[in-house]
From TrEMBL:
<dbReference type="InterPro" id="IPR033391">
    <property type="entry name" value="FBPase_N"/>
</dbReference>
<feature type="binding site">
    <location>
        <position position="116"/>
    </location>
    <ligand>
        <name>Mg(2+) 2</name>
    </ligand>
</feature>
<feature type="binding site">
    <location>
        <position position="113"/>
    </location>
    <ligand>
        <name>Mg(2+) 1</name>
    </ligand>
</feature>
<feature type="binding site">
    <location>
        <position position="242"/>
    </location>
    <ligand>
        <name>substrate</name>
    </ligand>
</feature>
<dbReference type="InterPro" id="IPR044015">
    <property type="entry name" value="FBPase_C_dom"/>
</dbReference>
<feature type="domain" description="Fructose-1-6-bisphosphatase class 1 C-terminal">
    <location>
        <begin position="199"/>
        <end position="329"/>
    </location>
</feature>
<feature type="domain" description="Fructose-1-6-bisphosphatase class I N-terminal">
    <location>
        <begin position="2"/>
        <end position="195"/>
    </location>
</feature>
<feature type="binding site">
    <location>
        <position position="90"/>
    </location>
    <ligand>
        <name>Mg(2+) 1</name>
    </ligand>
</feature>
<dbReference type="Pfam" id="PF18913">
    <property type="entry name" value="FBPase_C"/>
</dbReference>
<comment type="pathway">
    <text>Carbohydrate biosynthesis; Calvin cycle.</text>
</comment>
<feature type="binding site">
    <location>
        <begin position="116"/>
        <end position="119"/>
    </location>
    <ligand>
        <name>substrate</name>
    </ligand>
</feature>
<feature type="binding site">
    <location>
        <position position="272"/>
    </location>
    <ligand>
        <name>substrate</name>
    </ligand>
</feature>
<dbReference type="GO" id="GO:0000287">
    <property type="term" value="F:magnesium ion binding"/>
</dbReference>
<feature type="binding site">
    <location>
        <position position="115"/>
    </location>
    <ligand>
        <name>Mg(2+) 1</name>
    </ligand>
</feature>
<dbReference type="GO" id="GO:0030388">
    <property type="term" value="P:fructose 1,6-bisphosphate metabolic process"/>
</dbReference>
<dbReference type="InterPro" id="IPR000146">
    <property type="entry name" value="FBPase_class-1"/>
</dbReference>
<dbReference type="GO" id="GO:0006002">
    <property type="term" value="P:fructose 6-phosphate metabolic process"/>
</dbReference>
Amino acid sequence: MKTLGEFIVEKQADYPNAKGELTGILSSIRLVAKVIHRDINKAGLTNNIIGNAGSENVQGETQMKLDIFAHETFKKALMAREDVAGFASEEEENFIAFDTQRGRNAKYVILTDPLDGSSNIDVNVAVGTIFSIYRRVSPIGTPVTLEDFLQPGHRQVAAGYVVYGSSTMLVYTTGNGVNGFTYDPSLGVFCLSHENIQIPQTGKIYSINEGQYLKFPMGVKKYIKYCQEEDKATNRPYTSRYIGSLVSDFHRNMLKGGIYIYPSATNYPNGKLRLLYEGNPMAFLAEQAGGLASDGFRRILDIQPTELHQRIPLFIGSKQMVEKTQDFMQQFSGE
Ligand code: AHG
Ligand code: MN
Ligand code: MN
């Protein structure tokens, strides 16, 4: 049995010039995962965690107490490190530049959706944490700038998520494939359980909020009908599965084969999901597992971000299924 700690150290040895900063950051994220795991598991027992916080985030979305708790946990864990230069989160309007006196040589910035699927927390349904790591582009030793955060996804150094499901798992990539670690709460360690995850090239699952059907672009409507049609050769009709938590929906589809779609809609002209905190890290993982991620027309990882909280339509999962949606989007783009 190999622990996450052992795995990270072993991988660092593959890069003789690595100074161990990324190793340290991943260890902090592991700690954050344990803290959030602990608190989520007590959610039904304490009023400090479930329910609305009575506030809204920068995008006007209701913040749950756990959104804020997860955000603060993440921020504190990273601030304690000298190798992190800056931090941006879905739950905070501006990025944070960490103290340049302490982190004199810090070269990484971290972006996070600290709690994904937060509307599921009060009803005991799986939620997640997503993270994304870049090397800064501004000079080391100066405060980070917006430019450090607005990098296209293909520049990510590492990305991953934690899914707090029937068991808690941490899944991440540093650009050499995707590995998954399952948490053993009695030992307090993550153990390598899913080595070199490969997403099936095609699958039977489609995940989309079909209640919004009438608001979707024609290409998506046609694709949904395609999923529902009977055709033995292509294993249709597909199965519809939608948890309403990107991390959990993506995780299932990655292991079983499938596609997750959050398209643009008349009430969400650019989709609902955020490019920097959700789209890019999940796209990096998808590609590293042999899958694909698109906005319906373009590769997610090629998009040049223009704003911290920018939204993006997301089509992600099994390669052939994502390609199929691109065909539909293209074909019906004028309607
Ligand atoms: P968050 O909780 O971080 O705001 O993200 C929720 C996202 C995503 O995880 C989920 O798939 C989607 O919103 C669900 O949205 P709908 O309820 O509109 O389907
Ligand atoms: Mn989210
Ligand atoms: Mn969130």
